[in-house]
Amino acid sequence: ELNISGDLHLYGQGMESDVVIKGGDVWLEEGYLELNDHTLTVEGNLYQSGGYMYIGTGTLDVSGDYRIQKQTVDEEGEIHWTSTGWNNGYLYMQDEAGKVIVGGDFVMQGYYSDLSAGTMELYGDFEQKTWRRDGSSVTGNFWSHDDHMVVFKGKEAAISFESSESYFGNMETAEDTVVTITGQFKLPVLKSELNISGDLHLY
């Protein structure tokens, strides 16, 4: 097991053991990060501004936010979040044993995802934003389908889709989770009772 205190900037590699990053944020900026059959624990935020995240049969456990976005800072020191780089910012979950746990919010503004199996457990909010760069756009960048499951386990969850080309294939909530939905929401296959406040768009 590898324990790291402070921020970690990753440029892609295959994991050969469990890794714990304590007290800092993790930045995946380029390259391929394959969890294989291991657990990557981030006791902070995970910012994926580029690269490819392959969950495989492993577990990604993030205590804070997981943003697949690029961060910029203006002259006044204000932080802004935008789309990842061109043809960049990928997330793959294609194995039943794979798991992504996010204690904070999950935001997808990367170029592509293929989520056909495994489970994503979210304790905060979910936001899908269209990838835009140099006049081009990708609207279907969160593609959850087949046996992939998204589970909301927090007390409250705000779900926002900018495009109906992105959607949940299967969705579940904890019994006491209150869900607020905005944007273009395509009704998924529900595995539990779903409480909705706000607008609901059915396709």
What is this entry, summarized?
By secondary structure, the chain is mostly beta strands. It has strands at 2-5, 8-10, 13-14, 19-22, 26-28, 32-34, 39-43, 46-48, 52-54, 59-62, 66-68, 70-73, 79-82, 90-93, 99-102, 106-108, 112-115, 119-122, 126-128, 131-133, 136-138, 149-152, 156-161, 170-173, 178-183, 189-190, 196-198.
Characterization of this structure:
The chain has 203 residues and is mostly beta strands. 0% of the residues lie in helices and 48% in strands. The chain is built from no helices and 27 strands. It has strands at residues 2-5, 8-10, 13-14, 19-22, 26-28, 32-34, 39-43, 46-48, 52-54, 59-62, 66-68, 70-73, 79-82, 90-93, 99-102, 106-108, 112-115, 119-122, 126-128, 131-133, 136-138, 149-152, 156-161, 170-173, 178-183, 189-190, 196-198. Strands 1-4-7-10-15-18-22-24-26 form a 9-stranded parallel β-sheet, with no helix packed on it.
Topology:
Blueprint: E1 2-5, E2 8-10, E3 13-14, E4 19-22, E5 26-28, E6 32-34, E7 39-43, E8 46-48, E9 52-54, E10 59-62, E11 66-68, E12 70-73, E13 79-82, E14 90-93, E15 99-102, E16 106-108, E17 112-115, E18 119-122, E19 126-128, E20 131-133, E21 136-138, E22 149-152, E23 156-161, E24 170-173, E25 178-183, E26 189-190, E27 196-198
Parallel strand pairs: 1-4, 2-5, 3-6, 4-7, 5-8, 6-9, 7-10, 8-11, 9-14, 10-15, 11-16, 14-17, 15-18, 16-19, 18-22, 19-23, 22-24, 23-25, 24-26, 25-27
Antiparallel strand pairs: 12-13, 20-21
